[in-house]
């Protein structure tokens, strides 16, 4: 023990009093996220999880669901966390400020700061034998230090002690900062794992007296490991778990191989003896010495940075990489094995005929004998599901049952296991396409052409069905600006008919829909009816109207330009085709056809040049041509001829 300096005593007292330097954050429902993990420990007394963030020097307190309760800053470079045996005090290794920070576990208020006289730590921290133990040092000067919380610096005694690693039985000591671990079921023991070397030293120290004594030590190169990245004391047994995989038993001052779990990277051993192992992108839960996991959780695309058991073994907490850092996840029911349940139904079946469904339930932890599974059938007759007789599983885990589906269509069989003391619930389903009869459905007026604005009655006729006698009628006018619209929905009359009226302003697809029922398939029929545009042409600048033969003509002087104004149903981009013919020797001859755009009011005015000579007879008309007049939403429509005569 080194002597207490006045500076050390004042520093501890000052930081303990200056609580405003570390402010606790407000409670929040947000999930706990840290930038760089700096330790994780679960508090069974207050039902809290503490997570350190090395990057920000912050400690976050979360509830057992992972939601943030509060946080505290001012713990520079925090790298590890530990709780006192009674759960009242949280200790943090502040590597950047070279101190151990003691905080109230219930409030995160700072209780004391203990400066550590080193520039290489502290790094890892644990609580055992009434003291806080921490590792420090680098490159062959790794060592162990302690803080005695019972020592009051004001008395002149220093609560911090360095160079606590025993010199006897420890060979050349530690290369760098050592990983530390304790076990509440083995009070007074401290596991030590050397880091930074290609083959790490392993040790168990007895610190119950306050002075570390070697219980077991191993530093033979590559005999037990190829480097230590994680070490855990095994609950209730004389073993350590190294790198989440290898079990090393200690006895008579040394270590020996004692088996292994399937390959992992890091782990935490719970008080129940269960192991939460990080293996790639999974967290696997193992019973002691088992080779098959009780349960496996996926962590997405990346490995969990750390895991920690809740003291009551109700859940495992994992720090999982996310886009914003590392998110605290609560992995619930870790002691319950997840059964695998399958359901295999035929892909097709005949309605009202028996079918057989088979399946299997299995688990890596043995299921009880005589397991029963519930069965539910969901179909058109029972959309909320109908319970069928429970089925008992055979000794090999297989099962089968027979059912006669009363309804056709998609029939789903859902099989469930309710779970037991060592297994979660399980559910699986499969779907059968059960046959249905066909019915007839017709719709009139297909291909008919109507004047613009005609009100047309469309009648649908439905044939034989089971229970559903409803039909929908939809009208979909041509053109992207008009949506398909439901214009009638209802029950057909006693003759099987239902009708709806359509205002024929455009070519229109009319659809009748029968949605089917438990015994008859759905049916859809479509017809297309066509609508003309409305066309009228006004003639002006004539000086009279008079008949030539039986035809009425508009009379113009030979030097007058006739003005012909056409009004046509408007549509964006629409044009009228202007047809002109001349009468010669008893026949009409086409002189010209030209397209002219419509204004937004649907009007197009065309001035016909004066011929300059008399005796000429001409006629014109306006035409909408489907596809050539700029759109295809109506059917081709011809306006009436207007007859012109030019005189002197």
Please give a structural write-up.
The protein is mainly β. The protein has five domains: 6-268, Methylamine Dehydrogenase, Chain H (7 Propeller); 269-335, no CATH class; 340-434, Sandwich (Immunoglobulin-like), CATH 2.60.40.730; 441-531, Sandwich (Immunoglobulin-like); 535-647, Immunoglobulin-like (Sandwich). Helices cover 2% and strands 49% of the residues. It is built from one helix and 54 strands. Strands 46, 47, 49, 50, 52, 53 and 54 form a seven-stranded mixed beta sheet that branches. A five-stranded mixed beta sheet has the order 30-36-35-32-33, with no helix packed on it. Strands 38-44-43-40-41 form a five-stranded mixed beta sheet, with no helix packed on it. The radius of gyration is 44 Å and the shape is elongated. It starts with 5 loop residues before the first helix and ends with a strand. The model is unreliable at 1-28 (pLDDT under 50).
Please specify the SSE layout and strand pairing:
Elements: H1 6-17, E1 33-34, E2 37-43, E3 48-53, E4 58-62, E5 68-72, E6 78-83, E7 89-94, E8 99-104, E9 110-115, E10 125-128, E11 131-136, E12 143-147, E13 160-161, E14 178-181, E15 189-194, E16 202-206, E17 213-218, E18 231-233, E19 239-242, E20 246-251, E21 254-260, E22 266-269, E23 275-279, E24 282-286, E25 295-298, E26 304-309, E27 315-322, E28 325-332, E29 340-344, E30 348-349, E31 355-362, E32 372-378, E33 386-392, E34 398-403, E35 409-417, E36 426-434, E37 441-443, E38 449-450, E39 454-462, E40 470-477, E41 485-491, E42 497-504, E43 508-514, E44 523-531, E45 535-540, E46 544-548, E47 551-557, E48 563-568, E49 575-584, E50 587-597, E51 603-607, E52 616-624, E53 637-638, E54 642-647
Parallel strand pairs: 30-36, 38-44, 47-54
Antiparallel strand pairs: 1-28, 2-3, 3-4, 4-5, 6-7, 7-8, 8-9, 10-11, 11-12, 12-13, 14-15, 15-16, 16-17, 18-19, 19-20, 20-21, 22-23, 23-24, 24-25, 26-27, 27-28, 29-31, 31-34, 32-33, 32-35, 35-36, 37-39, 39-42, 40-41, 40-43, 43-44, 45-48, 46-47, 48-51, 49-50, 49-52, 52-53, 52-54
């Amino acid at each position: 023990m080194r002597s207490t300096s006045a500076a050390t005593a004042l520093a501890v007292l000052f930081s303990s009093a200056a609580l405003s330097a570390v402010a606790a954050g407000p409670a929040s429902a947000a999930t706990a996220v840290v930038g760089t993990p700096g330790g994780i420990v679960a508090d069974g007394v207050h039902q809290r999880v503490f997570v350190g963030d090395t990057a920000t020097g912050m400690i976050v307190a979360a509830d057992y669901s992972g939601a943030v309760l509060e946080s505290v800053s001012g713990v520079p470079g925090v790298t590890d966390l530990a709780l006192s045996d009674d759960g009242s005090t949280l200790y943090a290794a502040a590597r950047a400020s070279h101190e151990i920070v003691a905080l109230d576990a219930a409030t995160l208020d700072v209780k004391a700061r203990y400066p550590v006289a080193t520039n290489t730590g502290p790094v890892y921290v644990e609580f055992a034998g009434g003291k806080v133990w921490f590792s420090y040092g680098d490159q062959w000067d790794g060592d162990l230090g302690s803080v005695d919380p019972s020592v009051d610096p004001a008395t002149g005694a220093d609560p911090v002690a360095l160079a606590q690693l025993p010199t006897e039985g420890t060979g050349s000591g530690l290369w760098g900062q050592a990983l530390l671990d304790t076990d509440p079921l083995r009070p007074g023991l401290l596991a030590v794992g050397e880091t930074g070397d290609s083959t790490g030293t392993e040790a168990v120290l007895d610190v119950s007296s306050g002075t570390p004594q070697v219980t077991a030590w191993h530093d033979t190169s590559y005999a037990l490991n190829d480097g230590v990245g994680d070490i855990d004391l095994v609950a209730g047994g004389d073993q350590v778990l190294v790198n989440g995989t290898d079990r090393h038993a200690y006895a008579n001052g040394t270590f020996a191989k004692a088996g292994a779990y399937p390959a992992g990277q890091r782990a935490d051993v719970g008080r129940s003896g269960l192991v939460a192992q990080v293996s790639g992108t999974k967290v696997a839960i193992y019973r002691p010495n088992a080779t098959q996991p009780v349960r496996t959780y996926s962590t997405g695309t990346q490995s969990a940075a750390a895991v920690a058991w809740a003291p009551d073994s109700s859940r495992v907490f994992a720090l999982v990489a996310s886009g914003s850092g590392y998110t605290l996840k609560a992995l619930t029911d870790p002691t319950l094995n997840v059964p695998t349940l399958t359901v295999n139904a035929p892909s097709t079946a005949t309605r009202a005929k028996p079918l057989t469904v088979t399946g299997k339930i299995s688990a890596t932890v043995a299921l009880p004998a005589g397991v029963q599974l519930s069965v539910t059938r969901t179909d058109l007759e029972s959309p909320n599901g109908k319970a069928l007789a429970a089925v008992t599983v055979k000794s090999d885990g297989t099962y089968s049952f027979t059912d006669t589906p009363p309804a056709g269509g998609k029939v789903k069989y859902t099989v469930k296991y309710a779970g037991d003391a060592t297994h979660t619930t399980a559910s699986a389903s499969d779907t059968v396409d059960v046959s249905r009869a066909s019915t007839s459905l017709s719709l009139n007026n297909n291909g008919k052409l109507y004047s613009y604005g005609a009100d047309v009655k469309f009648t649908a006729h439905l044939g034989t069905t089971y229970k559903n006698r409803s039909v929908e009628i939809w009208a979909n006018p041509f053109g992207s600006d008009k949506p398909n619209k439901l214009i009638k929905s209802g029950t057909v009359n006693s003759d099987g008919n239902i009708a709806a009226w359509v205002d024929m302003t455009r070519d229109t697809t009319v659809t009748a829909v029968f949605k089917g029922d438990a015994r008859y398939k759905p049916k859809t029929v479509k017809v297309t009816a066509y609508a003309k545009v409305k066309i009228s042409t006004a003639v002006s600048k004539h000086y009279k109207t008079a008949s030539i033969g039986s035809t009425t003509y508009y009379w113009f002087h030979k030097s007058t330009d006739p003005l012909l104004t056409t009004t046509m149903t408007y549509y964006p981009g629409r044009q009228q085709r202007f047809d002109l013919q001349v009468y010669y020797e008893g026949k009409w001859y086409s002189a010209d056809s030209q397209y002219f755009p419509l204004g937004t009011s649907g009007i197009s005015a065309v001035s016909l040049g004066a011929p300059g000579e008399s005796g000429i007879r001409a006629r014109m008309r306006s035409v909408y041509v489907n596809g050539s007049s700029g759109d295809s939403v109506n059917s081709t429509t011809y306006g009436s001829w207007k007859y012109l005569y030019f005189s002197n």
